[in-house]
Amino acid sequence: MTKYTFHIVGHQLCPYVQRVVILMQEKQIPYSRTDIQLNNKPDWLLKISPTGKVPVLVVNDDKVLFESNVICDYLDEVSQNSLYPGDTFGKATHCSWISFGTEILDIIAKIIYQDKSLHCANSSMMEIIKRLNIIEELLADDLYFSSSEFYLIDAVYATIFRYFEVLNLFINANPLAKLNKITRWNNALQQRESVQNAVPDNYNQLLVEFIKGKDSFIGQL
């Protein structure tokens, strides 16, 4: 691997930051990290991120990348042992299901930020369950998404699944309850050091505090 220095700018709860950090941990890529507050973004972030969003990757102190998928693909290409399948169709398949996972994250964000009633929150959760059932049917008996080998797609879904324990505190709905294959997959994911190290030890507590006060049904409970 060519000599680079990497600095990741993120937020301690952001799932898109988590997927980058998990990749870097899995590939043992050295990096430094700065977490910002989303409700008090520093001026310097807006100078390096045209969207004002995280994650942002600063390379060699003078080059900047934004958008998690772009950052992950870049880091995967400049380091050894890709976190994608080796064949072109396998990689494309994983990318398709990563996009599917991003849609689930969008619905989770809708519950946290936008849904104004229990009915709306439950409807969003049913949309999530519908999508998870599709994945449940897709999974085999492998340890991870498609094999016993950990890939980037596993990192993405690890960041999705860890939301549900906290959301269950607010709306009493565990979407994994009847999904045995996904539950097994999630248990394997949450045991990986990279997944554990991508968030603070008190992640659940911090997420509860983050949700409180949001202009949504669960934020006002």
Protein described:
The protein has 221 residues and is of the alpha+beta class. It is built from ten helices and four strands. The protein has a four-stranded mixed beta sheet, with helices on one face. Strand 3 (56-59) and strand 4 (63-66) form a beta hairpin. The radius of gyration is 17 Å and the shape is globular.
What's the arrangement of secondary structure elements?
Blueprint: E1 6-10, H1 15-26, E2 32-35, H2 43-48, E3 56-59, E4 63-66, H3 68-77, H4 88-113, H5 118-138, H6 152-161, H7 164-171, H8 180-190, H9 193-197, H10 203-211
Helix pairs in contact: 1-3, 1-6, 4-5, 4-6
Percent of residues in helices comes to 40-55%
Report the biggest beta sheet as strand number plus sense, adding barrel if it closes: 4 strands, mixed
Q: Compute the separation of the termini in Å.
A: 50 Å
Q: Care to count the β-strands?
A: 4
Helix segment tally: 10
SSE arrangement, N to C? EHEHEEHHHHHHHH
Instruction: Tell me, briefly, the overall form.
Output: globular
Portion in beta strands? 5-15%
Radius of gyration: 17 Å
Strand order of the largest sheet: 2-1-3-4
Task: Record keyword descriptors for this entry.
221 residues; alpha+beta; 4-stranded mixed beta sheet; 4 strands; 53% helix
